[in-house]
Amino acid sequence: MTSSNKKITQELKPLFEPESIAVIGASNSPAKWGNWMVTRPIGSGYRGRIYPVNPRDKEVAGLKAYSNVLEIPEPVDLAIITIPASMVPDTMRECVSKGVKAAVLISAGFAETGPKGKALQDEVVKIAMEGGIRFMGPNGMGIWSSSVRLNTAFWFTPKTGGISFVSQSGTMGAYLLETANNKGYGFNSFLSVGNQADLSMTDYIEYLGSDEGTSVIVLYIEGLKDGKRFLQKAREVIKKKPIIVFKGGITENGSRATMSHTASIAGSDDVFEAMCHQAGIIRMYDVSHAFDVAEALSKQPLPRRNRVAVVSAGGGHCVVTTDACGALGLDVPELDDETVRALEPYLLPHAPPPKNPIDLAADPRPMTVANIVKLLAQNPLIDAIITMAPVSIRSTNPTHVREVLSAAEILSEIPRQYGKPLIATAMRGNMEGIAFELMRERGIPFYEFPEEAARAMYGLYRYAQIH
Amino acid sequence: MTSSNKKITQELKPLFEPESIAVIGASNSPAKWGNWMVTRPIGSGYRGRIYPVNPRDKEVAGLKAYSNVLEIPEPVDLAIITIPASMVPDTMRECVSKGVKAAVLISAGFAETGPKGKALQDEVVKIAMEGGIRFMGPNGMGIWSSSVRLNTAFWFTPKTGGISFVSQSGTMGAYLLETANNKGYGFNSFLSVGNQADLSMTDYIEYLGSDEGTSVIVLYIEGLKDGKRFLQKAREVIKKKPIIVFKGGITENGSRATMSHTASIAGSDDVFEAMCHQAGIIRMYDVSHAFDVAEALSKQPLPRRNRVAVVSAGGGHCVVTTDACGALGLDVPELDDETVRALEPYLLPHAPPPKNPIDLAADPRPMTVANIVKLLAQNPLIDAIITMAPVSIRSTNPTHVREVLSAAEILSEIPRQYGKPLIATAMRGNMEGIAFELMRERGIPFYEFPEEAARAMYGLYRYAQIH
């Protein structure tokens, strides 16, 4: 760890792992941010103490309230501030007096509203800086930090996992995390960074680079204020873990929109693309794709080379997965005669020769897929595997169910056993079934469409190249 | 209607709208195709008569069974055949004697297995042709025809709508329809065409081109046997309704896979691309994208030009939707000062100037989006609108709910009122809420991600250009 790393880790620890929070602007009115900032941490099982601050009410959401942060009898690590912008400078001064270590500024009405708001924001930055408080925001939606189970950003509690997501857009960020959460992906942390008046995207990636709970970082960026420093830090981080980026404002009209949204100069997309390439940042061009790739990177080993085996009971799935791999620079190489002969005994007589892709021809036996994938994982010519799960839908036959579970267990062990990534695609629209549940629990990423699976595998291969 | 149209409509009517079906190979064993071919039509509410044919059992699934198709006392329009390949020629002869008009050959073991199977297939073609029977298959998964509610292909009954889907892959076709069905899209018909020994992709599009219930045709193609005739018919059909295509086998390894899957020569992708362009076929490159576009084309009017207005309560949604439009050649033009002044009174004071995209800045009032979209629809500089729905999540306040419903009603009327397409994007991961339900019921397509909405709008614009 460099001295810069150590400094940022120390400074941001009260943001990510506060032992106590004060909610300044806490409210009993259920449709207000000041209410959610208290009820959401309670609901997510926040591990520290919560001190609501409200000048009138004695209690907020059942917790004793204080009329001022200075009245709180215990130390406060993190202040979460949701009061009108004009009142923020005085409150920040009080936080300094109290010895608060970090703050999340939810309040809007700063630089995003024009020169007057910018002056107010500069004042807040000065007070905080002189008082030794680092802060996130203003004009953001807050945080999810799984290590202390602190949620201020979502109306639900996110699933825990290795993905940390830093978003320059609050609503879009929250939306993306919600859709990814619905797919079963788990998050170490989420930050809605707002105006980045003090702490910037660069600071967050530096912190997350050294954060043990974070295995992959996803960024939604509309514009970078410190491109050069970002590039330098990103390079350092990427030695330890992957960074995946989606960039808003890549067209002329889109840039106009980023200007009025986050006052970001989107900049030339060619320059951004070159920067990603130089730093080894994995860039995605559809806003939802980053999470499919992050899920695989958070759970699977990296392939040595780009040679993928594709296994499915559906011929069409074989065709489309193979095409999707090819379009992303992944090879689905034709297998040699010896391997084909070794695989053939496991297949039904009418199945086509298993040259890769391997079409199981609607084989209903759960162990077929496990046997085939295991042999492929042992083959030195194959670096990675995309497979269907053993069929398990609507069967109530105990022997069959037992076989499905055995096959799913064998498949789940393959990445650890052979050090090769395994990714699964669904054969039914609902992705239900016991095999799916078991494999997902044990870290095998599942995708609805062949293109998603291929993209996830591409992410693994890309990071293997960079790393 | 040309004479060719009339001929094909007459010949394929017994396939799409049979008054009676015989299931040859009907079975009481619940894990067999011969069982599903009887139970599925019963389950989907097939409007005609079902005659199971089984040499041993007196009844199948509660219906009287016949030992031979010739024993059925009433006329049979359509024979669904699921017996071993070797027995098909004799059975086809019996169907000819019985006066059966069309057949669906589920049985596999024909041309896809090699020269011997090909010879058997040729024999069946000859018998059917001489006997005046047109047939689908062999080696397919059957049909969904909503006009008579005949389902043989799915374990569920598809939703009814204007999309007709013809698939060269059975498993992939069924999978895609299932996922689209789960999104709420409705289907007029589905055909798993199998080996296309008699009826081909070209015949089906010619029939569907004149079919009143079909408003848009989606094709999954691995290879075309009669490219020239297909191109000619596609051109004729596209004058009446759009055709959207996904093509499997576009890479070298993918082509190898189509050869072993459907014995299709995938052909040069450049040639296929040029053909699509020439004919006005809308081509999609991700296998799931075709249905998102088809849904919009089945329900929305076409835009006059490419000028899109984007409305959302989230700034990030505005940015990403605008970028996604731009990437597909859709313009999100900056609005003139007069329009901006007309829109401003409807927005919150802190919202950015409504220059397009229009960021409602988290406005919680349901009528804001309705008022803004209505004004935009009246504007001659705007051809189409992508909007969020009025916010309706988790509100139990009756006044608010009434307002949400009113706003949703106003929005739903806009396409009919102003002849401009309206497409909605979700702001929450589950797309729930009363506004969503109401608008979807009234024909407003909803998409989970900005890129999907932009793609659907692109489909409308593309067909408007071709049409």
Provide a descriptive summary of the structure in words.
2 copies of one chain form a homodimer. The first copy, chain A, has 467 residues and is of the alpha/beta class. Chain A folds into 3 domains: 139 residues, NAD(P)-binding Rossmann-like Domain (Rossmann fold), CATH 3.40.50.720; 160 residues, Rossmann fold (3-Layer(aba) Sandwich), CATH 3.40.50.261; 166 residues, Rossmann fold, CATH 3.40.50.261. In chain A, 43% of the residues lie in helices and 16% in strands. Chain A has a 7-stranded mixed sheet, sandwiched between helices. In chain A, strands 2-1-5-6-7 form a 5-stranded parallel sheet, with helices on both faces. Chain A has a 5-stranded parallel sheet with strand order 16-15-17-18-19, sandwiched between helices. In chain A, α3 packs parallel to α4, α10 packs across α16 and α14 packs parallel to α15. The model of chain A has no long low-confidence stretch (mean pLDDT 94). Chains A and B meet through α5, α8 and α11 of A and α5, α8 and α11 of B.
